[in-house]
Amino acid sequence: MKVQPGVSKSKKAQQKDPHMISSMGTMRIGPEFKSRISEHEGKILALATRSVVTLPPTATVMEAIKIMTEKRFRRIPITNAGTRRLEGVVTSVDIIDFLGGGRKNLLVENRFKGNLLAAINEEVRQIMETNIPYLNDQADFKDAVSMMIERKRGGLPIVNNDMQVVAIFTERNAIELMGGIVTSRTVDEYMTKNVKMVSTETPIGQAAKVMVDNWLRRLPVVKDGIFAGIITSTDIVHFLGRGDAFSKLTTGNIHEALDQPVGSIVSKELIWTEPGTDLGKAMEIMLEKKIGSLPILENGLIRGIITERDFLRSLNEPGK
């Protein structure tokens, strides 16, 4: 199909003439979808991100928030300060869970009585995940993709024989292989159709809870039923890391910040595509725009959403 570039600037424009953002470059026909995967078997380190930032368990939650904000990371491996051995991982979802989204928030409510400034100075070891999957530096590409799907992880630390972190392999690393290749498969085959959404008036804290309760990293945002953007766990972390949350405080209680509406932090640039878009083209759009998901719109209404994890599923299907 031919993809027309465009930007939706307003609700009115979107209702009458919904356009999709696309790559301005020419789609690379290149090798076959399956062939591109087979080229990289056994080369996990060649595909992974080698410049890994780690933190010790004694680092504060605020330090993790600042690094995620500055580096635009979703996850940070936690390593022993002396041996540099992997001890855990903290993600953007762990942080929103801690600050209001889920069970980890009990620590904030019980120990810190909801005080945001006190909570963010807690040690990151209190919220990091310790039962984490990881890859050996000799891992195979296909095994890495299978593990990420099975364990529902967006990234895996890669360690050497001494359990020291040498790289990290993410969903983004995987789909960089495929962006722009014609796959002969459409987004309709892999998108999630029963999409959980929030409105522009939904409190940030409530959106965070929906994410944590449903193992989601992002939610489409609607206004009067019309697509208005995407909010991600990373957006909420950046809201905290930039200091925006603290400007909303008068008593110091975290709920003052998280009661702000989702519409106050959602991106104003609307990036989406339509049913029938080739999977490779959708990946190319996401890579170009540096986003982790792409809503599928028809007549201004959300029909589904496709994410980096959905692309992993397409890579992992036997016989394809």
From TrEMBL:
Pfam families: CBS. InterPro entries: CBS_dom, CBS_dom_sf, Diverse_CBS-Domain. Residues 1-25 are annotated as: Disordered. One of its GO terms (biological process) is methionine biosynthetic process. The keyword Amino-acid biosynthesis applies. CDD domains: CBS_archAMPK_gamma-repeat1, CBS_archAMPK_gamma-repeat2. Residues 48-105, 128-189, 191-246, 266-320 form the CBS domain. It comes from the Archaea. Keywords: Amino-acid biosynthesis, CBS domain, Methionine biosynthesis. Signal peptide: none annotated. This is Inosine-5'-monophosphate dehydrogenase.
